[in-house]
Amino acid sequence: MALESFKRVQALKAERNKLAAELEERATADVSRILKSLGDDFVNFLSQEGFRVTRLKNAIGAIYGDARLSLEFPLPQERFSDALTVLSLLDSRNPEIKWRLEIVPHSGDGTEPPPEALVTQQGGAVTLENMIEVLRRRNDRFLPSEYRIRYRVVAVKEDAPAPGETRSARAIIDVLNAILEEPQFNH
User: Which residues pair with 99 in a beta bridge?
Assistant: First the structure.
């Protein structure tokens, strides 16, 4: 009996790990698609506006005159608790601050909680069976994310302006237009 129970637990763990790996692979591919789209839009928009644009591994630089914009992004495998992914935008005209761009699902505030949290929220005990069921449901209904961008100022230096309100946009072009219109950037 103990041997059968041991085998069952091992089989459940293997299934949980397989489902979690499948979901992670899908999420990484989705974030890769989003990062590529954002990067392409950033490059296309600023190139059309006369900026000289350079792509690096995890950043894109854009220069116009003596001003430089830099969009920095993480690896697609990197996970954030409050967003699908997070980018930073820096402007050489105001080096004391940077902008945090949180890419979140269009319909929600952030990412889904881990399976253990969902099982607990639904009043169940955290068991391998419950976690497997949550992972199955997530895999079955996984769709590429329609996203929006939450953005705000975050301080880089101690004497920088206080972090600003969080705003939202549908496209990186909207974020760039809003940021470049900020009074502190027009000097």
Answer: 89, 153
**Tokens 């889904």 found at:** 112
pTM over 0.70: yes
Place of tokens 């992972």: 135
Token pair 């967003």 is at which residue? Answer: 83
**CB of 152 closer than 8 Å to CB of 164:** yes
Interatomic CA distance for residues 79 and 94, integer angstroms: 29
* DSSP conformation class of 78: -
Q: Which domain holds residue 124?
A: 2-185
Strand locations in 23-146, DSSP E? 52-55, 59-64, 67-72, 85-91, 97-105
- Condensed to tens digits (0 to 9), the pLDDT of residues 8-57 reads 888 888 998 998 899 889 889 999 999 999 999 999 999 999 999 999 98
97: its two tokens = 């601050």
| pLDDT surpassing 60 at residue 160 | no
Number of residues written out for the chain: 187
- Count of domains forming the chain: 1
Distance CA 175, CA 167 (A): 9
Instruction: Kindly report the backbone phi and psi dihedral angles of residue 27, in degrees, each rounded to the nearest multiple of 5, phi listed first.
Output: -65, -40
* Per-residue CA distances from 102 to 4, 71, 93 (Å): 47, 13, 22
